[in-house]
Amino acid sequence: MYFVIVTIVALAAGYAIGVLRTQRAAISAQAQLKAEQQHAEEAMRKQAQALRAEFKAMSVEMMRTQSDSLRQQHLHTLEELLKPLGHDIEDFRTQFVKGHASLDGYIKALVEQTNSLGREAEDLAKALKGNNKLQGNWGEAVLNNLLSASGLTEGRDFTLQSHQPDGRGSVAIPDVVVHLPGQRNVIIDSKVSLKAFTDYVAADDAAQQEALLKEHVRSVRQHVKELAAKDYGRIVPDSIGYVLMFIPGEAAYVSAVTAAPNLPTEAYQQHVILINPTNLLMALQLAYNLWQSELQSRSVNEIYTSAEKLYKKFSTFAQNFVKIGKSIDQLHRTYDDAQRQLTTGRGNIVSQLEGWKEKGLNPSASMPDGLTFDEE
Question: CA-CA distance, 77 to 71, in Å (whole number)?
Fold first, then answer.
């Protein structure tokens, strides 16, 4: 009994010792596994850091390489784009230098021309001063220049110095009669005196200038009355009823209507229209445009008339053409009838004539080869 108990105790102790050893081995293995796992994790961490560093270095290198490549490519592309621009800039610079030289020459010529015009204007003012006849001639010269610039043709679109009987034994001679479409006429007068205005421009004293400006307005009013008294609107056939009173200087016109704003209305009430060079040129160009429209309208009418005549003539031709066709058709039918009588059917003429040859007729001539006929 004792031996059995000892044996059981020994077995239990051995089992306990085995369990303890197994637990210790498991704990030791678990600790070793954990250490190896930590070591592996540390190794992987270091490797990952190394890979990140290497990848970063490679990325930086690749970016630098690509950046250099792109920079070179962009530089090349930019050079190709800028090269034509450089040529254009160089051409522009060359042209600018040439243009600048030409502009300098043009400005010098313009200055010389301006100085020349100034001298000519001064000489003209001196020449016109106090000489009404010369002023009238100058006004007519300016008017002629405007007529030429408008495109109108003398003799067709306007008449100079035409003699117009007034019905009272006298003859009126308006400076210009402009002819409008529709057989209407516009009279232009250019004989206004500018003596007071030239004196006004030359005066230095303000009081004297004021007096001369009033004299200039009075002179224009006086010429309006004289022009209205000539009654050109009645004398010239087909007149529009108003006379254009041409003031050849822009400054003279502006000074007069500025000093006397009612002056144009006063003149209009007397069937006279004050007009300056700018407005007259516009009016003359309007007349030119009216004539162009009239000529185009006439051309259209002529084309329409010609087309109408051509249509009528073609209609007659078509009727005759149809008649000819019908006659040809009738001729064909008559020909076919004659041919049938001559060559086809029983008793046709050719077969009868050929039958006579069989009966002893010996004619000196024969039927043409192309003639076919029905034999009996």
Answer: 10
Across residues 204-225, what is the average pLDDT?
88
Separation in Å, CA 306 to CA 296, 302, 309, 310, 315: 15, 6, 5, 6, 14
Residue type, 83: K
Distance CA 139, CA 124 (A): 12
Contact (Cβ atoms closer than 8 angstroms) between residue 195 and residue 129:
yes
Structure-token pair, residue 239: 């007149």
Beta strand 272-275 pairing with 176-180: unpaired
SS3 190: coil
Name the more confident of 227 and 172: 227
pLDDT score recorded for residue 90: 67
User: Using CB atoms within 10 A of its CB, is residue 202 exposed (0-12), middle (13-18) or buried (19+)?
Assistant: middle
DSSP calls for 226-285: HHHHHTHHHHSTTEEEEEEEE-S-HHHHHHHHHH-TTHHHHHHHTTEEEE-HHHHHHHHH
**pTM, 2 dp:** 0.51
- Residues 106-155 have pLDDT tens digits of 456 555 644 544 454 454 555 455 556 666 677 778 888 888 888 888 88
